[in-house]
Design brief:
3 helices, mainly alpha
């Protein structure tokens, strides 16, 4: 379980770095051309408004349609890193608990 935790941490770090890269490229394009048109979440479904049968999903998509996708990727990476750290700590806690129970026998 500890190995899976560390692999999750590494994957989260790589995803976070990818998000930072996307944000840096967006800022470089902004500096070069002087226009700010970040690649938003609406780019995931073709750039228009999302229209599904789920009203709540449509409302969320409209609220965050221009949220920069690089930030989303970065924050997802941070969440995955946190999950991996939690897995590693849980594995250490389980190992310590088993070790203490063996000593007390």
């Amino acid at each position: 379980m500890k190995t899976i935790g560390w692999l999750t941490v590494i994957a989260g770090l790589l995803i976070g770095l990818l998000g930072l890269f996307v944000l840096v490229v967006t800022v470089i394009i902004w500096f070069k051309f002087g226009t700010w048109s970040p690649l938003g979440l609406n780019a995931l479904w073709g750039g228009g408004d999302l229209s599904t049968d789920w009203v709540g999903l449509d409302r969320l998509a409209k609220m965050f349609h221009n949220f920069p996708i690089g930030m989303l990727i970065f924050f997802a990476g941070l969440g995955i890193v946190h999950l991996g750290i939690s897995l590693v700590e849980r594995a250490d806690w389980i190992a310590t608990k088993e070790w203490r129970s063996r000593i007390s026998q």
